[in-house]
Amino acid sequence: MAVGMPQNFAEIKTLPETIARLFDVDLSSRLPWFETEVMGNALGAYLVAAISFVLYAVLLYFTWKHFVKRWDNLAADHPNSLWSHGMPLVHQVRPHLLPLIAFYLSAQPLELSPKLDHWILLITVGAMTLQGIHLSSELGRILIEYYRGGFRSDDPVVKNTNNNLATLVRIGVWVAGTLFFLDNAGFNVSTFVTGLGISGVALALAAQAILGDTFSSFAIALDKPFETGDFITVDNLRGTVEHIGLKTTRVRSVGGELLVFANSDLTKSRIRNFKKMQQRYVELKLAVHPHTPLSLLREIPSWIAQVIEAQPKVSLDSCRLAHISNQGLIFDVSYFINGPSFNDYADSRQAINFAILELFATKGVTLRMDSNMPISLVPS
Predict the structure, then answer these.
(1) Under a CB-based contact definition with an 8 Å cutoff, are residues 287 and 293 in contact?
(2) Residue pair 173/133 in contact by the 8 Å Cβ criterion
């Protein structure tokens, strides 16, 4: 480990001479065992390494404690900030890593065998790499949650997207950490990366459908054409969205069965989202018998307006005598039903139809479906 170290640190065997020059004390005569060599190093070198280990460990410990205390204070002063959300991450640092780092630093000046030197390096770098992978993965998750509003939102779509993004970050961190460890272990990482790139291209070609669905899931999450709980129709299939996954989206149909769509198919399809609907537009055509008196015909628009406006969440658009044909006198009626609920829409439409039929029966107005079938209603 002395390779690359400054000469005055590497030549630790001259420690008695250095002390003699500095303090005018001849340790060689007073402590003859100081220069006794054991496994290629003087006993004095081991003593200095032990003292360095204690000093490094104490210094690292108190530095870390000060850092954690400072972070806790900032988290307390800034709630709902990165300081507060990152506080659990700071406390996840393994305390046994500090003595390991102190041991590695204190053993640097010693002349050790290449094999022992290599194993100390591997153990230290391995422990630090695992800790770094864990902290980096958690940091990525915290940043994703913070900047995408995951900490402040209960939206399952946001949570699901954040989890998917955190999974990708975790995979990337593990790959980078593994390559870092292999590089420090002496492996030829460049050759491995080249082979990994070729294998990755082959794997991407083989799994392009899966990758397409995965990227489509992010497109759905970011663009939000629909969310969990929305009622949608895709072609002639319709139902309520239950789950949006990395590869598929599950929809519970009106009949109760579970519909599973590939995400790439959904991004290519024309989707009708009824939950996003703020109001529904309804058109109604009424064919009145041509022999209906003109005085009644003039009153029909106001009667229908009263019927429609009497319903909650319904607003009239128009009611006019639009056509005179063989089918009769055609009134075009249009109105809006406010709200996305299909049940409210169906109930309001039914109530309006019943009210119009009852009104026409009371007023003696006859409806016609075609030229041969007049409908004459009798008031109850």
Answers:
(1) no
(2) yes
- Give the C-alpha separation, 121 to 62, whole Å: 24
β-pairing verdict for 41-42 and 37-38: antiparallel
- Whether residues 268 and 287 fall in one domain: no
Residue 203 placed within a domain:
no
Which structural domain range is residue 341 located in? 279-375
* Residues 258, 177 within the same domain: no
pLDDT tens for each residue of 117-157 = 778 788 888 888 888 888 888 888 877 777 766 555 566 66
Tell me the average pLDDT of the chain: 76
CA distance readout (Å), 318 to 167, 302, 344: 54, 10, 21
